[in-house]
Design brief:
It is built from 3 helices and 16 strands. The protein is an alpha+beta fold. It folds into 3 domains: 71 residues, no CATH class; 65 residues, Alpha-Beta Complex (Type Iii Antifreeze Protein Isoform Hplc 12), CATH 3.90.1210; 60 residues, Roll (SH3 type barrels). It has a 5-stranded mixed beta barrel with strand order 11-12-14-15-16. A 4-stranded antiparallel sheet has the order 1-4-3-2, covered by helices on one side. The longest helix has 22 residues.
């Protein structure tokens, strides 16, 4: 590469500045033209998956290994537009606390939240109307008789059957009052509000530090009852750690009712 040189006789400062400025500008232009832009800037980065898309992917992966859903073509039903799925810092946890319902519970440990989704078979079919909008379809629902506060352990007597439109949340409605036993509200319910699956969670029937009546041997021709101290909170059907009050031995039990459990 040939370089331009200044003559020794040319010592005027202004001329030196002009010539050096011209050379630096030329060099910058040549380098800019010869050097391609980094690949990361040449094309826009792929947009990250939304929190709901991540939930969908993990839900379908879980369903593929869960006996009730194995071998079925499934999709996640759209959520109520008022629900915002928060980004979970850990893998989501899935279970089906209501076997007679098509709802699946999704839980996140960090930050702590839970919601219910519905896994439907096949793909949703679009409804086409030719003669104007059709009358809204009425669905059977359970509505609260009075104001119920968050944390209330509910009973079937607190609700009454009703029929009302429920577009977009048909599969999230609670319609069987038998499923309300030992359940707790996660939000306030105003009178005549339909009860949905994600309004509920298992009520805490055993609290940490409480004395628990533990049974063993049921169905095997004998029953043994012992006292134990609960080492953690637990709801119906949940597995908790216990400590035998007499021997101090560690036990694992399944919650069967208020302050009651059976050995696992």
């Amino acid at each position: 590469m040939q370089m331009l040189c200044l003559r020794n006789s040319d010592t005027r400062p202004a001329l030196w500045a002009r010539r050096w400025g011209w050379m630096l500008g030329l060099t910058w232009q040549l380098c800019s033209a010869a050097s391609p832009a980094p690949s990361g800037l040449a094309s826009s980065a792929a947009a990250p998956a939304s929190s709901f898309e991540v939930l969908q992917q993990q839900a379908l992966q879980w369903a593929a290994t869960y006996p009730a859903f194995q071998g079925k073509s499934l999709h996640v039903a759209p959520l109520d537009s008022r629900i915002t799925v928060q980004t979970c810092q850990q893998n989501l946890q899935f279970d089906q606390p209501f076997p007679n319902q098509a709802s699946v519970r999704v839980r996140c440990a960090q930050p702590m939240w839970q919601l219910f989704i519905t896994l439907n078979q096949g793909s949703e079919a679009a409804v086409v109307t030719r003669n104007g909008p059709a009358a809204p379809v009425l669905h059977k629902v359970l509505v609260s008789k009075e104001l119920l506060k968050r944390g209330t352990v509910i009973t079937p007597e607190m609700f009454t059957p009703a029929e009302m439109p429920a577009a977009g949340m048909e599969n999230q409605l609670m319609v069987d009052s038998k499923l309300l036993v030992n359940m707790e509200l996660v939000r306030d319910l105003t009178p005549n509000t339909p009860l949905r699956t994600y309004d509920l969670k298992n009520a805490v029937l055993i609290k940490r530090g409480q004395e628990v009546q533990v049974t063993a041997g049921q169905g095997q021709g004998f029953v043994i009852t012992m006292r134990a101290e609960s080492l953690q909170d637990g709801g119906l059907g949940e597995q908790i750690r216990l400590k035998n009050s007499e021997s101090g031995r560690s036990l694992t039990g399944i919650v069967t009712g208020p302050n009651a459990a059976r050995l696992r």
